Hints:
The longest helix is centred in the middle third of the chain and has 23 residues, at 103-125. By secondary structure, this protein is α/β, with parallel strands linked by helices. It is globular, with a radius of gyration of 19 Å. It has helices at residues 10-20, 35-45, 61-67, 85-90, 103-125, 179-185, 236-246; strands spanning 2-6, 27-32, 49-53, 74-79, 95-98, 137-142, 145-150, 154-160, 163-168, 174-176, 191-193, 198-201, 205-210, 216-220, 230-234. It folds into two domains: 2-125, Response regulator (Rossmann fold, 3-Layer(aba) Sandwich), CATH 3.40.50.2300; 137-246, CATH 2.40.50.1020. It is built from seven helices and 15 strands. The strands form four sheets. Strands 2-1-3-4-5 form a five-stranded parallel β-sheet, sandwiched between helices. Strands 10-9-8-12-11 form a five-stranded antiparallel β-sheet, with no helix packed on it. It has a three-stranded antiparallel β-sheet with strand order 13-14-15. Residues 2-114 form the Response regulatory domain. Residues 140-248 form the HTH LytTR-type domain. InterPro entries: CheY-like_superfamily, LytR-like, LytTR_DNA-bd_dom, Sig_transdc_resp-reg_receiver. One of its GO terms (molecular function) is DNA binding.
Amino acid sequence: MKTIIIDDERLARNELKRLLEDFPKINVVAEAANADEAIELIDEHQPDLLFLDIQMPGKNGFELLEIIEDRVPEVIFTTAYDEYALKAFEYNALDYLMKPIDSSRLAEAITKVEAEIKRTERLSSDPNVQYLTENDQVFVKDGEKCWFVKLGKVRLFESMGNYVRLHFEDQKPMILKSLNSLEERLDPKSFFRANRKHIINLQWVEKIEPWFSGGLLVTLKGGEKSTPLEKIEISRRQAIKFKDLMSL
């Protein structure tokens, strides 16, 4: 696994590299002391994994992920602060390691990464994978409420950490699933990954506008008269795919 270590402390980077020597599948191809350096290295190496510090001079780790949102590899956060744990998983991080890093916890984190990469590769290479289409119905349970909803009625899937919120009619239940795993099951002809946090149902797009830095802003039709219209930003890189998908 091509890996980049991003941490403003040289000693912390060196210690992590030393620990990673026990894991032959991890190939540290580069290291960065800040987000700006990391962006260039990520573009150059297209890594499978980032070990990412949160508190850094300039842009922090979360801001870095916002910038590279369309090409984010697997992420393991490394930090001396535990107050960011919940937010880290909102960014679909696979693990959150506290400094000083314990070798056994590091092994657990790497096992998670290996399992996730294998799962993704298996799904992408399996010609028999059956996508869920807009005509499929799914069972949704949130607390004491249950729904049996046709996917064509779901206009938006929104990442909420380890959960995904479904928007249909005037309902917004949550399911215990990551947006990445859900994306792998949805028919790409009907459902489009707009950005790190959202998958939109293309049948519900009402309006498309140019947006900042080459992105697009799409307006989704409301589920009910009382439901406000939802505006979702399509990031610059995804906007290119969106235009190709929607063009003649």
